[in-house]
Each structure stands twice: as structure tokens, then as C-alpha cells.
Predict the structure of O-antigen ligase-related domain-containing protein.
Amino acid sequence: MLKKTYHILFLLGLFFFPFNEYEGIPVLGEFKTEAGALFLISGFLLLVIESMFTKKISIPYKSIVFKILIVFLLWCIVSTVLNAPSVSTNFFKHTGGVNRFIRQYFALLISSLIFFLFYWNVLIKMELKDILFKIRKVFLYSLIIASIYGFLETLVSFFHIGFLLPVLKLLDYFPFLEVTLHAEGRISSISYEPPFFAIYLITISGWMFSYILTNKGIFKFLPTIAILLLTFFSGSRTGLMVVFFQFVILITILFKERTFRKYIINALSSFMIILSILLVFNGEKIIKAVSEKIESLDFKGNLKKNISNKSRFGMQYASLQVFKENPIIGVGFGQQSYYSRHHYPIWATSNNYEFDLWYKNKNEKSFPPGYNIYTRLLAETGIIGFFIYLTLIFVSISISKKIIKKASAEKRYLGIILLISFSGLYINGLQVDTFRIYGIWLCLAILIRILSEKPNYVSRVNTD
């Protein structure tokens, strides 16, 4: 009974992970507004209760991927301990360095270990075929809700069809949703803001693209078309580039096989038909939107006039300055902001309300984001921690590519999904500094599950 219940909670957690458009539960900290975390935490607690009765819990400690992960988690502690004198005296935004480390490390553990082990213990009891079809179906259902919301939001916000606003507002009755409209030309659908919605699309894109591989008929192209259209209207520059890159990976893989070449042509033809229909009804609006999206990708040209870009590049620059001063072991996990605030460049802070209102404001309790997981790791864990994390990236992508080349059908499909997902999520790390990215840890668990098909691979650890 417990196993069936936490299996359902696992699937609900995946379905609701992009739903963060509600007030939330403050006690959960960084996860307070993320509905998916509620189900995943509940599922993990049931797993712990089950292990108390069975005295066993599955841990993939033989996996090279898991070993690298554990080394990374340990180094985050070691680098902080080595910086103990400065960590103990750090203070900013009413928060001490030790407190900041505990909170940040706990958030890291929830995503990379607690949720990961929960994923693993569910996946190890599932056949690879079930993993492929069940997880994909859950993501498809969430995409359907996101598409309905996003379609209505686009018509109201982008095309100014105001009479549909009451229809859109009906989605307030859906669990964990509070309808919010953003600036013209941007949608966030089921998520609080466009950037997080883009992360959701990047996370599920590989799963939705895989319908082209496994299904028949014209409907197998619809999930891919939905991903591309939602990414376009989200207004996320990074999301637009990353999803396009993921789509190129898919095209590259498919084009190597003669049987799929016609599908590529059909997909492109379908996209052109939809685009043509949109151009007929509102061509000027579409052309203007495309021009704006292309212009928005010019980061260098927009640096001076775009506040968001100035903040992002300014934060990344400051993190690199911290790294230059502490290149080997960094300044300790979670400690970046205590040091980077002294390195904000004038070109980033000048005429930038974000620094005055949030980042440099001591009364604003929220810490300034680093906007880049890699520059954050360099600053906080030094070249050692950065190298360990890069090793995790290299190993996971390399194994995924090997699975595609040598595996059977289900494994190959999962390998393609993993390669597309890993590529997109790791690139997305260039614009986010959080480890609270569900897709990475889920994909790592699936990767280890595929490898566990080898004899004597799976091990169970006694919990006494």
C-alpha cells in the first residue's frame, strides 16, 4: 500500500513541479511555492516509513554517477569548513554565514539527495518501458494544461482579445494556480514567471520530442509544436536558444536514419502551415514579435539598455572576481553574496534599480542571485568543486550518448531523452544559480536505472 501511494506521489510531483503560481508554504524555504515539492517530500516520507518496516532502502552506491555526486556534496562541506573563520563572521541581509550555509546546503540536499533517492527507489521498481511511457504521459498531461493556459494567455496578453480574460480566470480554480498576466509579449502559463516556465519547457522537451520516435500519425508532432510555440511566446531569451538547441539535437539524431527523414520534413511542413495561418490572421503582429525576439538575443547590444542583462552579467562578473581571489577552495558553499557585493561593476549598477531596490538593500532579506551556477561554483567551491561538477556533466552526457548507440529500443529512446534533457538543463545553468532543477536529478536517477540492468548492479542497504 505504501509503495503504491508514494509511486502516485512521485508522478504527481512530476506533474506539479512547474506549478509555482500560488502563495506557498513559507516553512519550506526555497521550495515554498513549488507544488511538486509537496508531493515529492510526502512521497519520500512514506518511503522512509516503509524502510523502517522492511529495514531496507535502495541506494545506487556502485554507480560512478552517484559516487561523483557524493564527492561533490562532501566537497561543498569541506570547502566551507576550510573557510570556517570567514564563514563564522560573514553577515549580510540579517543573515550570518553559518546560517546561510545550512539553509543553502539543506536546499541542495533536498534536490540532489532526498528527491534523488526518492526518484531512484520508485524507478528501480519500474520496467524501463513503464519509465518511458508513464513519465512521458505525466509530462504530456502537464503540457496540455500549460498549453491551454498559455494559449489563452497569449490571446489575451499578446493579441489583446480581452473578452477571453474571464475564461482564463477560470483556471484560478485549478490546484496551485493563480492567474497572472505579464508584460505584453511574455507568458508564464502555469509558472510564476517566464524564466521558470522556460526551465519547465527545457525539462520536458526531450520527452515531448520522443513522441516523434515512438508514435504514428500527425498527432505525434503536436507536443513538439506546443513546446516550440510556448517557448517563443514565453519571451525567455535563454529558453528560446536552449530549446532550439535541443531541437537541433533531435533533428541531428533523426536525420542519420533514413526512416525518420520524412518525419523531419513533415514536422517542418506542419510548422510552416501553422505559421502561415498565424500570418494570415495577424501577420504584422507576428513579424514584429519575431523581430523583437531576434533583437532580444543580442545580449551585447542590449547590455546598456536592458536592466536584466546588466544585472545578470554584473553578477557573473562579480562572482568571477571572487573566484580570482579564492581560486582553489572558494569562499565556502552559500557564501558568494557576502563577497560578490564588493565587486559589482559600475557599468552594471549605474541606473539599475534592481541593485538599489533588492541586491544592495540590506533590509531586503532575499539574497541576490548569482545568475550562473558555474560562476557560483567557482566562487564558492573553487576550481576543485567546479571540476567535480563538470565531471558529473561529462560522465552523464557521455553515458547517454553510449546508450543511444548500443542500447535496445526502450533504452535508446530514454538515452535520446536524457541527452536532449541534460544538454538543455546544463546549458540553462549559464543563467540560473540554483540546484533546485528537478529535471537534472530525475535524469541522473533514470540514467543510473538504465545502467542497473547489468547483473548484480542494484544493491540494498540495511537501514538499521
Notes: Residues 126-267 form one domain. Strands lie at 56-58, 91-92, 95-96, 460-462. The CA atoms of residues 242 and 424 lie 6 Å apart. The two ends are 22 Å apart (CA to CA).
